[in-house]
Design goal:
Strand order of the largest sheet: 2-3-1-4
CATH topology: Alpha-Beta Plaits
Number of helices: 2
Strand content: 25-35%
CATH superfamily: ACT domain
Oligomer: single chain
Number of strands: 4
CATH class: Alpha Beta
Shape: globular
Number of domains: 1
CATH architecture: 2-Layer Sandwich
Largest sheet: 4 strands, antiparallel
């Protein structure tokens, strides 16, 4: 007798994407890592050619506007958008 079990279906996770224009990168990841420590950061992507930073945070149990405001205080981070 053979039993076949299907893998459990996992609902897609809720994520919030923060995108920012940047002008300075020296030590930026370290500052952002400390700032976002309490959040479930899934992706941190820096594009030097376009001068943009993308941060993907999982979940929805936080104030995205507050996180964006905190990111804007990091030296080198300019206009932060939330999607």
């Amino acid at each position: 007798m053979t039993t076949v079990l299907d893998a459990p279906v996992v609902a897609p996770a809720v994520t919030t994407v923060f995108t920012a224009d940047i002008v300075e990168t020296e030590g930026m990841f370290a500052r952002i890592a400390v700032l976002l420590n309490p959040y479930d950061v899934r992706r941190l992507a820096l594009c030097l050619e376009a001068g943009t930073l993308e941060i993907v945070v999982a979940g929805n149990g936080f104030d995205a506007g507050r996180v964006a405001a905190r990111l804007e205080k990091v030296i080198g981070v300019l206009d932060v958008t939330v999607s």
